Predict the 3D structure of the following.
Amino acid sequence: MERQQGRLVEVAGSETLWPAELVLLALGFTGPVAGVLESFGVDTDARGNALAGSDAEGGYATSVPGVFAAGDMRRGQSLVVWAIREGRQAARAVDRFLMGHSDLPR
Ligand SMILES: Cc1cc2nc3c(=O)[nH]c(=O)nc-3n(C[C@H](O)[C@H](O)[C@H](O)COP(=O)(O)OP(=O)(O)OC[C@H]3O[C@@H](n4cnc5c(N)ncnc54)[C@H](O)[C@@H]3O)c2cc1C
């Protein structure tokens, strides 16, 4: 892979065969599955992540009403502490969207 304009892109012809008895794949820095975002019609940022802010008002809301995004899907590959924080804040945003208010902590 090589990084092009902030995205990892496969290098054509770079495939290599390695003899192995066991292969453990630990991959994940490839961004959200585009088909999922496309099927929801969610706008994406330049890196292919779901476009959504993290402001107190309107935070985590995507371009599609009722569709929220948080964690790696929103901010790109990052740390689990950010995913936890964003998940909690997004839960509050969803609660406010559904109920008009929320008692969940921000
Ligand atoms: C190899 C690797 C090592 C890492 N090491 C560290 C580390 O040492 N420290 C650290 O802080 N962070 C680390 N991270 C980053 C951390 O794991 C992520 O930032 C964090 O897990 C993001 O949480 P998330 O909930 O946003 O996304 P995820 O944890 O990726 O959760 C997304 C979930 O959605 C599910 N999903 C995807 N598509 C669909 C679908 N169509 N339908 C239903 N479910 C779906 C997936 O199966 C997954 O369970 C590492 C990441 C990787 C890949």
User: Anything to note?
Assistant: Residues 26, 28-29, 33, 36, 71-73, 78-81, 83 surround flavin-adenine dinucleotide (CB under 6 Å). The domain at 2-99 is CATH 3.50.50.60 (FAD/NAD(P)-binding domain).
